[in-house]
Amino acid sequence: MKFARSASRLLATAAAALAGAAAFAQPADYPNKAVRIVVPFAAGGPADNYARFMAQRLSAELKQPFVVDDKPGGGSIIGTDIVAKSAPDGYTLLMMSNTHTVNETLIPGKPFRLMDDFVGIAPVNYSDLMLVVHPSVPARTLPELVALAKAQPGKLNYASSGPGTPYHMAGELFKHLAGINVTHVPYKGSSGARTDVVGGQVQMMFDAVTTMSQMAKEGKVRALATSGATRNPVTPELPTVAEAGVPRYEATIWLGLMAPRGTPPEIINKLNAEVRKIVDQPDVKAAWARQGAVPMSMTVAEYDRYLRADIAKWAPLVKASGAKVD
Prior knowledge:
With 326 residues, this protein is an alpha/beta fold.
């Protein structure tokens, strides 16, 4: 009898939990209130900028506010964990980047597992990175920079927006393939890193073409190369890192949206369709091309495979480079 009462209480609790889930998960009229997009990076960087762009377009399409909430820190861990612990109801989303796929190997002790605690909605875009140095650095080409670094091991510094970010891994991959020793200087966001490179406190960094190309044109930094497989259309005069003498080098920054695991599939599919509709628009493609960004359009299943493949891709590179969280 005692066992039966306990079993009944467990069943009642489970039924209540399911009823509660059904109460907040109402895909048919989603969204019926404001949706928060958490950006786990500092304001002013690509994730923040494109999150705001997507929020504006999604608000217009779905007739509810999509609000960007920057929660930087911990190499994206702080803001990401906020979303991981949020209700899986479609009203708290994550703007993520390949920082997250790198961190699966780089930071194994973080409080969440990307593919266990989140579900992919859709990718947004990708862009090349640009290797820049402060004008005081006596290197006008990438081979000259490599030679300088080899002549002064450990004396040159490179800035990044934090451990595991594309800027960090681009620098570590460059070190590994070029056979040089330069010191990583992590910041809490790309804005601080960018400011100190422009100010000369740090000698160099890899930064997104979308945010650094204008500063290079203004002479605030000296651009040496871009990080993609081919020359970037925004800066066709610059060679790629591989073309300039570091074979096999390729690194990009890409962005996408995820939601807490357990978010109803109907909501995920609806958001996927809306994001793809936005990134496939000709005016968006044209505007982003001028900035150096390329739209990415995938189904939910394709994006899931892409995320898992990117985690697998970076794992051996993280280990081979010796990159560690500082």
